[in-house]
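FAQ: What does the model actually see?

It sees only this:
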Amino acid sequence: MHNFDQLREHSHLTRRYFLQLGSLAAAAWNASPLAAAGAASDHPLLKDAIAKLEYLHPLDGIKIADKGRTGVLKFPPEKLREVGLVPETWSLEIVADTESTSAVEQPFTRAQGNALDWKCLMKLAERHAVRFLHPCICAFGDDPFHTSLWEGVPLREIIWMAKPKANIRRVIYQSYHPDGLPPFQASLPLAQVLETPPGQVPPVLAYKMNGELIPAAHGGPARVVVPGMYGDKAIKWIQRIVLTNDFKASDSDAAVHNADTESPMKTKARFINAPTELKPGSPAALTGYALVGISGLAKVQYCVHPHNEPRPSDDPYWTKTDWRDAAILPAPTNWGRGIAGGKLPPNTSHMDPAKGTPLEWPIRFTLTHWAALLPGLPAGTYDLCCRTIDHNGIAQPLPRPFPRSGNNGIHRVTLTVKA
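And it is asked to produce this:
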């Protein structure tokens, strides 16, 4: 267990942080595990660490990758307009795969002059728009590029416009690509596109991030986002959809990056703030995030293991280590600088429309923050680690410890304690 005085100190400072955010945040603090110990003296390091946590970030602070080597990130405005990567010139083809036996009654092509344009997409949005929180994280990445509030039209509404007729097993969606390069693409089973379990968000053709139209610098004007899946399914600069009878997942990441592109997100914890050097007996703030994968999130834990104590050779997943519970922080009341006023719109998926608060927390396929107080330690060198426990009671990195289907190795930081 934590030393009570240290935990009480942690509690007081975290409470002060939430009080600064307003009455609703203070109420959320009072209901959190960190509130239990009462008040104590100030600790600037902990206060600062908690205060730096932010959920949604402005678009200009978001990292983006161009895995298809399109060059779009360097295009000037006139080039973006020329290649159809602004709303005014964007269009989307929806066709049957000419190399399979697939058939659609109403193909949409630029050659025929009937490709779906921005005006048509916005008309669909008036009736079918969905809004949801979702991180963008590479299957091989340790940390997400960003978490955003997305808005888009369910992909199924667009597919039905083409009147699919026969012999269709998968939906392939392709990015803009310059001459001489193949399109960067991903695919989904037709059933996954057309039918979504109640309470879940369908695959969407997204046109907004954090309430703003998606600029070309972030994959716009339209990109696919598939809730619960890694970024290899979130293809940017979408300009073509192909309906095929091919049963294989013809994803670019599967071929080029050797990824298992059909794997849903894994539950895992990562540090945001963790010390690498301390003085003996000095407590420290630990903060981090947990990615809530397909099996949900029950706990976040941390451990400290001395380097001079060999770990069991038959314990590759750290199951025999002395793990301690951290506190999963409540949902933000201010969601960050990335969205106007820090408030989510009431029609966001998984949010109570009357209260504007999550129906449950944490939400599956989103991120949540966690925090803990690291007690003072004697001099030495340690592994400082964090992990999750999912709703099946299984600890990270199990049940899928294989990185090809998403990185979820235990995050380890080397901590040196010396005078």
